[in-house]
UniProtKB/TrEMBL annotation, chain A:
Organismal lineage: Bacteria, Bacillati, Actinomycetota, Actinomycetes, Micromonosporales
Protein name: Thioredoxin domain-containing protein
Gene3D superfamilies assigned to the protein according to its UniProt record, in alphabetical order: Glutaredoxin (3.40.30.10)
Pfam families tied to this protein: Thioredoxin_4
Thioredoxin-like fold domain boundaries: 72-230
Spans through the membrane: 24-45
The keyword Oxidoreductase belongs to this UniProt entry's keyword annotation: yes
Stored PANTHER family: DISULFIDE BOND FORMATION PROTEIN D, GLUTATHIONE S-TRANSFERASE KAPPA
Automatic annotation (TrEMBL), chain B:
Keyword entries, A-Z: Membrane, Transmembrane, Transmembrane helix
Chief location of this protein within or outside the cell: membrane
Domain Methylamine utilisation protein MauE: from-to ranges: 13-146
Claim: Plastid is one of the keywords in the record: no
Superkingdom classification of source: Bacteria
Organism: Pilimelia columellifera subsp. columellifera
Protein name, entry field: DoxX family membrane protein
Entry keyword Transmembrane helix: yes
Compartments, as annotated in UniProt: Membrane
Bilayer topology term: Multi-pass membrane protein
Transmembrane region(s): 12-30, 50-75, 82-103, 137-158
Length: 235, 181
């Protein structure tokens, strides 16, 4: 027995009823807090989405989520992230074969510089910054050159990556001029990068690099597999 | 036996506090990592390939805020049993999602603590580790369902519930009530 004095204790059924009501109200308030949190989440997202997207001038005809290289009949889509090591390997191993097929007018490559690794650059969002600046390079007609320079000096995944200034210098190095510099400094295409990364997800691709030939994803994009698929698509 | 029980009645309320704060940290870190990039959160949901993109966008936007709210509720200790229950339900859904992705052989990043669900080549999906992790969190949520009463909780301030933990004096009484439940 407790030593506490308990004078005038109310009947126990009243106490129980009071307690029950309190539990009900606490539960309602708690669920309301969770519901409100969810609504705030959706509202935040909806407001962010309302942002204006500036599309680069250089996007591919019929697909404003990438840049076209070449004008051949078979369409090859390439999705890469500037920080992804596998994308550099792809670039080194397979790009020469793709360039050859572009020159031979067999394929059109649509290049999508997506940003899936923003969480791997110590908060600097290197993937998005790099992709946005590459869009500026595309507007000035030198996407391929800038892209190659970027992969040649790819920072390790998990580091803060290159600064915007370093990337602008790299652009100057491949012959890009003042328009490019201004575009890069204005951070014009960040929202566009967000949009094309979402589009990649919407199309059901979950890996970088992703390579598709006439819309069909290749499991392992090696030069041989790509050439094979292009030959098959040409027939 | 008696002394063991009375020791438990002293430890349990503090254990509940520890579990509450531990699970709160999990939710707040998980939600906090996602909240800065809701697009990535939506893509992570969509990567499981369980719903159309528009639905994944809604769930992806709602989830981080829900997680943070669960964490805050656990810190203040409001409706601990209910919040433990909601946590358990959410975790069971996560476990289901991971198992289904694994079963279908999807190569995805779980997106559990941020990230957009997409993998870079060379990154391996880590299904087993994530499942074990979630099972641990689920055990914590289950503990809160069974033992919701602990110190430093808003629940105590709101209620004169006789089943609330008391200091040593009342230990015999608490025991009988505890076993009566």
């Amino acid at each position: 027995m407790s030593k506490r004095p308990a004078p005038k204790a109310p009947p126990s059924y009243l106490v129980a009823e009071k307690r029950r009501q309190r539990t009900v109200w606490t539960s309602i308030v708690t669920l309301a807090v969770l519901l409100i949190a969810g609504i705030v989440g959706y509202a935040t997202y909806a407001t962010q989405r309302a942002d204006d997207i500036t599309y680069p001038k250089a996007t591919a005809p019929g697909d404003n989520t990438g840049f076209a290289l070449g004008a051949g009949p078979v369409k090859v889509d390439v999705y890469t992230d500037f920080m992804c090591p596998g994308c550099k390997n792809f670039k080194d191993a397979s790009w020469p074969a793709l360039e050859t097929m572009i020159r031979e007018n067999k394929i059109t490559v649509v290049y999508h510089p997506v940003a899936i690794l923003d969480h791997s650059s110590q908060g600097s969002k290197f993937s998005t910054r790099a992709a946005a600046i590459s869009a500026c390079a595309a507007d000035s007609g030198k996407f391929n050159e800038f892209n190659a320079a970027m992969y040649a000096q790819q920072p390790a995944q998990g580091t803060a990556g290159l600064t915007n200034e370093q990337m602008i210098d790299m652009g100057r190095g491949v012959g890009l001029g003042d328009d490019f510099v201004k575009c890069a400094e204005d951070k014009k295409y960040g929202n566009w990068v967000r949009e094309i990364t979402n589009t990649m997800s919407e199309r059901g691709f979950r890996l970088t690099p992703t390579v598709t030939v006439n819309g069909k994803q290749l499991e392992t994009p090696s030069p041989e597999k790509i050439t094979e698929a292009v030959t098959a698509a040409t027939k | 036996m008696n002394s063991l029980l009375s020791r438990w009645s002293v430890i349990q309320p503090w254990l509940t506090v520890a579990v509450r704060l531990g699970l709160a940290a999990v939710w707040i870190i998980a939600g906090g990592n996602k909240v800065g990039d809701l697009d990535a959160s939506a893509r992570a949901v969509h990567a499981y390939d369980l719903m159309p993109f528009a639905a994944a966008q809604i769930l992806g936007a709602v989830l981080p805020f829900l997680e943070i709210a669960l964490g805050l509720l656990l810190i203040v200790g409001l409706a601990t049993r209910l919040v433990g229950g909601v946590s358990a339900v959410v975790l069971v859904l996560f476990v289901g999602g991971i198992i289904s992705a694994w079963a279908r052989g999807l190569a995805i990043d779980c997106g559990c603590f941020g990230g957009g669900g997409a993998l870079a080549t060379g990154q391996e999906p880590e299904y087993l580790g994530r499942l074990l992790e979630d099972t641990g969190f689920l055990a914590m949520a289950a503990f809160l369902i069974v033992f919701p009463r602990g110190w430093l909780a808003l629940d105590n301030w709101l209620s004169d519930d006789p089943q609330l933990p008391r200091r040593r004096v009342a230990s015999t009484e608490t025991e009988t009530e505890e076993s009566a439940r």
